[in-house]
Amino acid sequence: MQTTSQNFKANSIKALADPNLQQALGKMKVGFVEKRAKARDALPEFDALRDQARDIKNHTLANIDYYLETYEAAVQKSGGVVHWARNAAEARQVVLDICAQEKAKSVTKGKSMVSEEIALNEALEAAGYEVVETDLGEYIIQIRGESPSHIIAPAVHVLKEQVADDFRRKHLHLDPKRSLVERKDLISEARGVLRQKYLDSDVGITGANFLIAETGTSVIVTNEGNGDLTQTLPRVHIVIASLEKIVPTLDDASAILRVLARSATGQEFSSYTTFSTGSKRDADPDGPEAYHVILLDNGRTDMLGTEFEDMLRCIRCGACMNHCPVYGSVGGHAYGWVYPGPMGAVLTPSFIGVADGGHLPNASTFCGRCQDVCPMRIPLPKMMRAYRRKEYEAGLAPPAMRFGMDIWGFVAKRPGLYRLATRLAMGVLGWRGRRQGRFKSLPLASGWTDHRDMAAPSGKTFQDLWDQRHGARTTKDLEREAAQ
Amino acid sequence: MVDTQAPEKLADKPPVTVGLFVTCLVDLFRPRIGFAAVELLERAGCRVAVPKAQTCCGQPAYNSGDNAHARAVAATLLDAFDGFDYVVAPSGSCAGMIRDHIPELFADDPVLADRAVALGRKTYELTSFLVDVMGMPTAIARYQGTVTYHDSCSGLRELGVKDQPRRLLKGVDGLTLTELPSAEICCGFGGTFCVKYPEISNKMVSEKTAAIADTGADTLLAGDLGCLLNMAGKMSRESRPIRAFHVAEILAGMGDGPAIGEAGEDLSAFTDGQKG
Ligand code: SF4
Q1: Which of A218, A316, B27, B270 lies 20 to 30 Å from A74, alpha-carbon distance?
Q2: pTM greater than 0.90
Q3: Is A174 exposed, middle or buried (0-12, 13-18, 19+ CB in 10 A)?
Q4: Res B7 pLDDT > 90
């Protein structure tokens, strides 16, 4: 996928000026937040479950090689094949090879962020396959020629009315006068169109929410049931999952599932939680003849053992972006790559580098709400700060900021000098602002005064007033401290 | 170095010594918040001093990834606040920095690590110190108005400051508190964020001030001057007739002075020993 994370600033300004997007974001914000809060309040042990979920993943990550090998053996035992892919190109090639070998024509897909990460659709289409996204949201953005703007609600940026227009444009075989006003009209139209695609498809590709080591099972959760049809109707089922989706046992997966849907949509459980193990056995009435799993690394093992390892606990629930005021202001596309919001602000520089992804960890007030709601207790602000540090140490931070920091640091570590400098500056500013009490514009502070007034300082610092009141130290101390 | 004797005590406790960390914004922009903090601490029975060698907590550098400067600036605090029982700041953001982040900055420093941890442990945000440590039941003051309260992010989420200011406000005669539904959502200040991403910050603060206006309150209170400058500045630009104060000002009975962004501060009130 084309990256525009470097242009985050321009992207965000565009997003703020897009009335449709702003309307869609306004609707999204309340829904997710209220539903999660309700689900949390209804489950007294929610926080204890979060601790348990975190501990399970930490244990798994500490032993990830063991669990992945256990998983591979279990998949093979159940008639499946495991493919290891170091990067996006290798993963794409495995899919293309399987499709060629199976003489496939049409591919259906369940929702998968990893397939976005490796830009799979583009590769398949370039090779001449028909690719159909079967998740309603994914289908909508596919026919709009867009990428997902949210990891669990890919079309959250699109208004219902826009979808109706897209359907009329795309589904030309249907009656142009049909009604597409209600949500249910849109859903049933999409369902009708997609039903035939499932039956025609040769290969079904899904992601995985979990891979279970002890049984070799892949698990997906959906609310539309599209994943089930995608993986059971075609001859071939390909699962694309990143390494860190592994958990040791079925019990572990169940424990984490208890926090996943609650955090994501506020449901106790998603409508469908589907477990797939291997290819169709002789006694099975249906199921794929071939079952492949592609295990994608693409930068994950590089995060192991670093200060970013905690990020590998992420279960892609989306709670962090649902509660993020920056995401809520600009939406997902502004982030410029696959993963938006706070989790994207850590994953993007991890995967595409801090030179291209560096804006994202900077575009946060560190309000901490993401960490507060993350079911896996991932310290997102801490990791964003770590990326700022890496950016600063690599000399990639903007020169004006570095210059400012150098001056500020020089003065602020010398209390005496600091007091002299601030006394002067505040004296001038206070004098200039004394009539109005505020400034409508200030040179060098237009970022502030373009949008809001700046309260004028009182004219004297607290420290000076305190000295005057208590007759404490005077110039001599100041001079001595300034000379330090 | 203790400058003032506590005039009265609410509780019968041995006097504790408090070093006031004024915070750079209060020091430079709104000294009256510092005087309000001193007043409240003294009322609670503390002996308060203001060490000279303090400047800033280092957060601007720390949050910009410039750990070297952050460390250099934070190191001044380790010396400045040696010997006090407690360090108190009228800011959840700066108290959070000293409590949680300065120890991280010095974690690998063989000499300063322990001192940074010790400093962090004795540092509190003002309202939480008054309630949680000094057991102040409420504040005695007067303010005529309907106020709403914004919970600044660091105080709320790093330090658990939520009930303490509200409990203290209960004792303020004439004051009605009407809660802000989005009180826990960031106002868009974020330190350097508001100038690095001014358009996003503007969007966030616009939503905040609209929500504040919806409460019908005539006064906005919060515990962090950075957030207050942001919200008050936006309300002033939008010509909303809502005044903004730091919660300490109201608790200390200083709500008759100019609100944030209003002219008419009389500094002599602070230097002759009177309170504003
Ligand atoms: S970082 Fe946490 S909250 Fe965000 S998607 Fe991952 S698990 Fe969910």
Answers
A1: A316
A2: yes
A3: middle
A4: no
- Residue A227 and residue A86 share a domain: yes
Distance from CA of B192 to the nearest CA of A (A): 8
Nearest-neighbour CA in chain B from A453: distance (Å): 4
Q: For residues B159 and B226, state if they share a domain.
A: yes
Among residues B75, B109, B132, the one where a domain terminates is B132
Query: Is A438 among the domain residues?
Result: yes
Neighbours of A286 (CB within 10 A): 7
- Is B244 a domain residue? yes
A33 falls within a domain: no
Regarding whether B149 and B56 lie in a shared domain, the answer is no
Segment 208-237 of chain B within 8 Å of chain A by CB: 229-230, 232-234, 236-237
With 0-12 / 13-18 / 19 or more C-beta atoms within 10 angstroms meaning exposed / middle / buried, residue A447 is: middle
**Residue B61 is part of a domain; what is its CATH number?**
1.20.1050
> Distance between CA B2 and CA B170 in Å, rounded?
31
Share of chain A above pLDDT 90, in %: 79
pLDDT in tens, A273-321: 999 999 999 998 889 999 999 999 999 999 999 999 999 999 999 999 9
- The answer to whether residues B93 and B32 belong to one domain is yes
Q: CA-CA distance, A319 to A79, in Å (whole number)?
A: 36
**pLDDT tens digit string along A149-174?**
999 999 999 999 999 999 999 999 99
CB contact under 8 A, B184 and A369: yes
Kindly list the protein residues whose Cβ atom lies closer than 6 A to any atom of ligand 1: A 314-320, 343, 374-376, 378
CA closest to B230 among chain A residues: A452
Question: Which structural domain, as residue segments, surrounds residue A454?
Answer: 414-483
Atom of ligand 1 at shortest distance to CA of A315?
A: 7
Average pLDDT over residues A390-405: 88
The range of the structural domain enclosing residue B86 comes to 7-132
Count of C-beta atoms within a 10 Å radius of residue A131: 20
Which band of pLDDT confidence, cut at 50, 70 and 90, is reported for residue A480?
A: very low
Whether A481 contacts chain B with CB within 8 A: yes
Please check whether residue A201 is in contact with residue A132, taking contact to mean a CB–CB distance below 8 angstroms. yes
Residue B3 pLDDT greater than 60, yes or no? no
Rounded to two decimals, the ipTM of the complex is 0.92
Residue indicated by tokens 């969007």: B203
> Do the domain assignments include residue B266?
no
